[in-house]
């Protein structure tokens, strides 16, 4: 199954798929509102603004699996992201990224190895998966890697449509 075909839901509960972004480079990030890494929303939003008109989008995936750091309702999450960080990129519903309830999207994404060759479970909030414009997983960046780190920006720019 292609990443484009996996059923998802928006933060407001509407059915969707990554296929809605077919042809774009995506940065899929599991996010949380009450994490020490939450300020990464600022960098994610700057990437969104910088590259959106070139065929790129961030996709935020709230997750409450790491010390309960995303406890809010969909409405609370949406309000927080908009009011605090001015988030304009699409957000999906709260999702499990690890364990028995792992969402099929993350079953596929976690097969991708990071720069050190390690695949498997998401380590923490704000792990980033770059998806190429053809819908294939292309790169994985662990949580401590800032959204605007040179290696993330280079990977995005390398894959942007011509």
From TrEMBL:
Keyword list, A-Z: Oxidoreductase, Peroxidase
Organism superkingdom: Bacteria
A GO BP entry: cellular response to oxidative stress
Active-site annotation: 35
GO molecular function per UniProt: peroxidase activity
One Pfam family hit: GSHPx
InterPro entries registered for this protein in UniProt: Glutathione_peroxidase, GPX_AS, Thioredoxin-like_sf, Thioredoxin_domain
Domain Thioredoxin: 1-161
UniProt cross-references to SUPFAM superfamilies, sorted A to Z: Thioredoxin-like
Family, per entry: Belongs to the glutathione peroxidase family.
PANTHER family linked: GLUTATHIONE PEROXIDASE (PTHR11592), THIOREDOXIN_GLUTATHIONE PEROXIDASE BTUE (PTHR11592:SF40)
Descriptive protein name: Glutathione peroxidase
Source organism of this protein record: Streptomyces pini
Species classification: Bacteria, Bacillati, Actinomycetota, Actinomycetes, Kitasatosporales
């Amino acid at each position: 199954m292609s990443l484009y075909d996996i059923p998802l839901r928006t933060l407001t509960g509407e059915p969707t798929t990554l296929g809605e972004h077919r042809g774009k480079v995506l940065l899929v990030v599991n996010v949380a509102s009450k994490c020490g890494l939450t300020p990464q929303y600022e960098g994610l939003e700057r990437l969104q603004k910088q590259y959106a008109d070139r065929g790129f989008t961030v996709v935020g995936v709230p997750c409450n699996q790491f010390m309960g750091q995303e406890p809010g309702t969909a409405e609370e999450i949406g309000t927080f992201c908009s009011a605090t960080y001015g988030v304009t990129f699409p957000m999906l519903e709260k999702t499990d990224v690890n364990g028995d309830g792992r969402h099929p999207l993350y079953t596929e994404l976690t097969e991708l190895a990071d720069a050190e060759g390690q695949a498997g479970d998401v380590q923490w909030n704000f792990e980033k998966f770059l998806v190429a414009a053809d819908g294939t997983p292309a790169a994985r960046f662990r949580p401590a890697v800032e959204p605007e780190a040179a290696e993330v920006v280079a990977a995005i720019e390398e894959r942007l449509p011509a």
